[in-house]
Design brief:
The protein has 13 helices and no strands. The chain is an all-alpha fold and 301 residues long.
């Protein structure tokens, strides 16, 4: 194995490690702040779940990273090493400063920059005009439906109708896209999907939290605090562990995609088929990063 390939693998694992330092601590912070778990238990359990994550789902995220952001001609060992180096520096500095940051988008930005630097803007795999029009059209429909639905729900539960309508419009525009993707009505891949979900993800979280808050508030408004705590504290821990597992299943595949792309670009692999050992070392890297805690991020949140 050539030195640059080995160095690239180390950098990819380094990105997963600093990812564990930064992103995984997000799930730790809430359970520690509410005393649902001690810091040591929170770090340990979250690390285990992050290590399990890459084995839970398919390698679709790895394939997206390795094949749909920049063209294969731009995806050379050198460009991958440069991209990983830039992403690691950004995530590590942000972690040291206690700033939560998306290592996913740091890595995507690194790949884009390295690819453009290698062969120009032709390296970027852009969506078609038809796909962009479909996204815009369905987003408008989603906004209208979302506004109507949340306005009705807000009125039924005596909530703020204006705020519900606004939240519904914004969230509906975002929520309809993944629904249509799951239903195979529209096909969105690669860079467009990554950019869209920068905005869609918080919208989904906001809509879910808004609805859940209204529902739970009405269910427990006559309950005593001690009883409520006994019910929700275990659920809080469960949610933390599920979030950590999902984080590992998604972000844990960063190194998987990059290492596999390295192996393909160097001719070690003929096709983009992810070896099991790549998943294993990537899972270990993100788990170790979580074990080191990212305490500065936890304290900042």
């Amino acid at each position: 194995m050539e030195p640059i390939i080995l160095f690239g693998i180390i950098l990819a694992l380094g990105l997963n490690f600093v990812n564990g330092l930064n992103d995984a601590s997000h799930s730790i912070a809430t359970v520690v702040a509410t005393n649902a778990l001690s810091p040591i238990k929170a770090v340990f359990y979250t690390a285990i779940c992050n290590m399990i994550g890459p084995f839970v789902l398919s390698t679709a995220v790895a394939v997206t990273i390795g094949t749909t952001i920049i063209t294969q001609s731009a995806l050379t060992p050198l460009s991958i090493v440069v991209a990983m180096g830039a992403a690691i520096v950004l995530v590590f500095v942000a972690t040291r400063m206690g700033i939560p940051i998306s290592s996913s988008h740091a890595m995507v930005g690194g790949l884009l920059g390295a690819g453009i630097g290698a062969i120009g803007f032709s390296a970027v795999i852009l969506p078609s005009a038809e796909t962009l029009f479909q996204v815009f059209f369905y987003a408008i429909i989603g906004a209208i439906l979302g506004a109507l639905i949340l306005a009705i729900i807000s009125a039924a539960f005596e909530g703020d109708i204006r705020f519900g309508t606004l939240v519904g419009a914004v969230c509906g525009a975002g929520i309809i896209i993944p629904i249509l993707m799951i239903a195979s009505v529209i096909q969105i891949h690669g860079l467009l999907a990554i950019v869209l979900f920068i905005f869609i993800s918080p919208l989904l979280g906001m809509a879910g939290a808004f609805l859940f808050n209204i529902l739970v508030s009405h269910l427990i408004k006559h309950s005593r605090q001690n009883r409520t705590k006994r019910v929700f504290q275990p659920l809080h821990v469960l949610a933390c562990l599920m979030q950590a597992t999902a984080h590992g299943a998604n972000d844990g595949q960063h190194a998987v995609g990059v290492i596999t792309a390295l192996l393909v670009s160097s001719g070690i692999l003929l096709t983009f088929e992810v070896p099991l050992w790549v998943i294993l070392i990537s899972a270990l890297a993100i788990g170790l990063g979580t074990c080191f805690g990212g305490w500065q991020v936890v304290n900042k949140m």
